[in-house]
Amino acid sequence: MSERVFSPSALIAEVNSLLEQGFSGVVVEGEVTNASTSGRGHLYFTLKDEQAQLDCVMWASRAGRLRYDVEDGLAVRALGSLTVYRQRGRFQLVVDELEPQGIGALQLAFEQLKARLDGEGLFAADRKRPLPALPNRVGIVTSPTGAALQDMLNVLRRVPNLEVVLAPTAVQGDGAAASIAEALTRLGASGLVNVVIVGRGGGSLEDLWAFNTEPVARAIAGCAVPVISGVGHEVDFTIADFVADLRATTPTQAAELVASRVEQQIRRLDAARVGLARDLRRVLALARARLDGLEGSRGLARVPQRVQQLRRRVERAERLGPALRTLADRVRSRLGRAEAVLGRLPARVAAGGHRRLLASRRQQMAQLIRGRLGRAATELAAKQRSLDNLSPRRVLERGYSITTLEGSTKPLRDPEETRAGQVLLTRLARGELRSLVADRPTKRRATATPNDRQPTLFGEAESTPGESHGTE
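User: That's the sequence. What structure does it adopt?
Assistant: C-alpha cells below.
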C-alpha cells in the first residue's frame, strides 16, 4: 500500500485540526508551576498532577482580565483548547478562562493585594493620621447620583458653617478605580479641604471591587489630608478600609465622625463660656464682700474728713506761690526805683557806701525769696504725700487688716462678738487669711494705760480707750 508522507509542519497542522475537532473547550484541573509572564503580557505556566504535566499558555488579551496573580502552587481549573506548538512539537493548552479552586477569583485577588500592601506597611497603625480638631471643609469622593451622598449631606448639614466639596466619580464598573484614585489625588492636593470621605452604599463584592484595587489604595495612602473610608455596610471590608486613616461602617457613619468632631468642639466652647461666666460672678461677689467690709471700718469712715483737711492745706500752699511771686515783683520794683534814685545822686555818693549797701540788700532779698519758695515747695510735696498715704490700700499696706466672721461682711470690733469654733476671715493688703477661734475670748480691760493707746489709721494716738481700728 502507498504510504502518506508528511512534513513536520504538515503533520502538526493535521494533528491540530484533529485536536480542534475533538479537544476544543476541554477543562483541565491541576496545580500551577513555572508561571511566568512575557514582555507582551502572555501568561505561560504548567499544569501538573502527581503523574503528568501539561504546558499552558494564556494570551495577553485574556490574561490581562485576570483580577489575581497566577502563582506557583495555585490550584486552578483551566478551560481551553489542545494544540501542538509548532516550533517544538509539544502539546499545550491554550487557556481561555482560568478559575482558582476552593476560593473565588475576586476573593483571591483581594487576599493577594491585601498581603502585598500590608507587607509594604500601608496598613500600619503608626501611619494613620488623626482627624483635624476642628474640620471646617470636608471633601466627598462618591457618585453624585447615589443615595450615599444624600445620606452624608443630611448629617453634615447639622453643623453650621461646614463647607462640603464634592469630587464626583463613578463607583463601580470599568474605569471606576482610576476615576476614584484621580479624584482623591486632585481633592487632597487642592488645599480646599482638611479631611476627605471616600465611599459608596452597599453591594456585592463585584460592585465594591473598585475599592479593592491597588490604584485606589495608593491614592488613599498618598492623599495630603486624612481620609475616612465609608464603603458598603458593616459586614463589608475593602482594601480602602485598611489603608484609610479611619474606617466607618457606612457612609452615614463617616459623615457622623466629621460632624461629631465639630459638635464636640462646640460643646467645649459652650462649657468654657459657662465656666468663665461663673468665675466672673464669683470674683464680683468677692469684690463686693470686700467693699462691704471696708464700708464698716471706723478708720476708713474718717478718711473723707482728713482728705478734705489736706485738700484745704494744699490749696493754701498753692496760693502761697502767687503771693511770693507778687512779693518778689514788689521788691524788684522797689529795687528799680532805688537804682533810679541812686543814678541821680552825685557820683561821689553813688560810688560810696550806698552802692555797697544796695548790693548787700539785693543779695539778702534774693536769698529770702529763694528760702520762702523752697519751704513752700517742700510743704506742698509733704501735703501731697500725706494725701496719697490716706488711700485705703496704703492703710492696708502699713499692716492693718479687716477681720469679719465667715459669711458676714460686718467688721469685728469686739472679741466678745465671737465664740469658740467660729471661722474668721482676715483681709490683708494682698490676700486673705482664714482662722479658727480656739477658745472663748476674755473680757477687755475697762481702762487703758497711756502705753496701751493705739495709733489710728493716720498715725495719731487714739484718745478714746477701748476703740478698735481693725484686727492686725
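Confidence is low (pLDDT under 50) at residues 446-454, 456-472.
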